[in-house]
């Protein structure tokens, strides 16, 4: 633009540093690094795409008489057992580069499937760890609540079989709190959430499901937006405490009590309600 204006005046082109110096002279301007953003996610922020989703929920709940008390959302997230979260540290003003913080070397993966209710309470979590056998000591020795569920898979990830077991866990955890005939479960498009067995179990147990629009979890999924982040930060703090106690390798026996502390600190009813209100996800009901 500057060169076009100068060309009309028969003046010389601006120099290579003109743009940066121009910004420095303007108190209302500053430079920042751009952030890569998935094109499909950007498209989903169009109100024309999001509005039909809320219309669908409104019509769906009206059709089946589903109450706010019986509305749920769930998602899953992964943890590296020995990973801590980046945090602010104080260093010398002349230091170059980012400071290093030691963390345990165990990069074993664990998955957490978590559900929340529209009123703000959390469904007991479902934990998946790598292994072949489930050990009863994981629950008893680590004082985990008896209504928590632990499963194993060859890599610590979700499978169709685990997805089916989770929906049974969800059913058992919420059936006694149901106020109406149907429960609504809002979910994503993961294969394990749409297997024939999963959908058949839902039909047989009066659980209605709705799938979020693709690539929209960053704005519609309350667990992604404001729950999993604080949970992982709280877990990272627990791992830091273990590091200070000279625990340099995080085992499953370390993971479970650390996760329990993080869960109790972050998935409070107050915190979940705050996220839901900020997101306005369930306020259409």
From TrEMBL:
InterPro entries in the cross-refs: CenT-Element_Derived (IPR050863), DDE_SF_endonuclease_dom (IPR004875), RNaseH_sf (IPR036397)
Pfam families associated with the record: DDE_1
GO cellular component: nucleus
DDE-1 domain: residues covered: 107-273
Any GO MF annotation of the entry: DNA binding
PANTHER family linked: HTH CENPB-TYPE DOMAIN-CONTAINING PROTEIN-RELATED (PTHR19303:SF62), TRANSPOSON (PTHR19303)
UniProt protein name: DDE-1 domain-containing protein
Organism: Bionectria ochroleuca
């Amino acid at each position: 633009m500057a060169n076009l204006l100068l060309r009309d005046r028969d003046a010389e082109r601006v120099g290579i540093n003109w743009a940066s110096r121009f910004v420095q002279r303007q108190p209302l301007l500053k430079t920042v690094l751009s952030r890569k953003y998935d094109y499909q996610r950007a498209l989903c922020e169009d109100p024309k795409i999001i509005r039909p989703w809320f219309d669908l929920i409104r019509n769906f709940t009206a059709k089946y008489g589903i109450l706010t008390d019986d509305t749920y959302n769930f998602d899953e997230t992964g943890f590296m057992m020995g990973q801590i979260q980046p945090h602010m540290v104080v260093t010398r003003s002349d230091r170059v580069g980012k400071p290093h913080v030691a963390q345990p070397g165990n990069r074993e993966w664990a998955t957490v499937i978590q559900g929340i209710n529209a009123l703000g309470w959390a469904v007991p979590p479902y934990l998946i760890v790598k292994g072949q056998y489930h050990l009863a000591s994981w629950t008893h020795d680590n004082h985990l609540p008896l209504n928590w569920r632990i499963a194993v898979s060859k890599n610590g990830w979700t499978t169709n079989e685990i997805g089916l077991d989770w929906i049974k866990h969800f059913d058992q955890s919420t059936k006694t709190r149901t106020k109406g005939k149907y429960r609504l479960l809002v979910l994503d498009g993961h294969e394990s959430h749409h297997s024939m067995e999963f959908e058949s179990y839902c039909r047989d147990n009066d659980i209605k499901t709705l799938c979020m629009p693709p690539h929209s979890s960053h704005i519609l999924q309350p667990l992604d937006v404001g729950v999993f982040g604080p949970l992982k930060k709280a877990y990272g703090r627990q791992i830091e405490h273990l590091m200070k106690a000279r625990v340099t390798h995080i085992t499953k026996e370390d993971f479970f009590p650390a996760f329990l502390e993080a869960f109790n600190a972050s998935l409070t009813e107050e915190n979940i309600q705050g996220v839901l209100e900020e997101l306005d996800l369930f306020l259409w009901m």
